[in-house]
Structures are given as C-alpha cells and as structure tokens.
Amino acid sequence: MKIIDKIALVLVVIGAINWGLIGIFNFNLVDAIFGAMSILSRIIYILVGISGLWSIRLLFVDYD
C-alpha cells in the first residue's frame, strides 16, 4: 500500500469517526477542535472528501 493510500485511509477513518460522533452524540469533533466552519475546519473537510474519492480506487486494486 502506497503512502498516499495510507494517508487517504487515515483521513477517511477520521471522517467516519466524526460522522459517527455527529450521529450518536450530535457532537462535531472537527468543529470543536478547529472552530465551526473556520478556514482550518473547511480544509479538513475538503481533505477528508478528497480522501474519500481517492479511497474508491482502493476497492479495485489487488495487492496480492
């Protein structure tokens, strides 16, 4: 697995945990750490979104 794949996977997991916290506790961890819709939180959301799109290709890669 390439380093970019690992970075994308970590960001996707962070996004999934954040969505889980929003769904269960109505608590947005990214907004709590970086501020609600601050430029930094928006960058995090953009990176997580790009990582999600990048990770789609992992479904079709055979690492054997």
Major pleated sheet? none
What's the shape?
elongated
What is the CA-CA span between the terminal residues?
11 Å
How many β-strand runs?
0
How many domains? The number is 1
Low-confidence stretches: none
- Helices and strands, in N-to-C order? HHH
Percent helix among the residues? Answer: over 70%
Helix count?
3
β-strand amount: under 5%
Q: What class, by secondary structure content?
A: mainly alpha
Average of pLDDT? 94
Walk me through this protein's architecture:
The protein has helices spanning about 5-25, 30-35, 40-55. By secondary structure, the protein is an all-alpha fold. Helix 1 packs across helix 3. The longest helix has 23 residues, at about 5-25.
Comma- or semicolon-separated keywords:
single chain, elongated, 64 residues, mainly alpha, 3 helices, 73% helix
Strands, helices and their partners?
Elements: H1 3-25, H2 29-34, H3 39-56
Helix pairs in contact: 1-3
At a glance:
By secondary structure, the chain is mainly α. It is built from three helices and no strands. The longest helix is centred in the first third of the chain and has 23 residues, at 3-25.
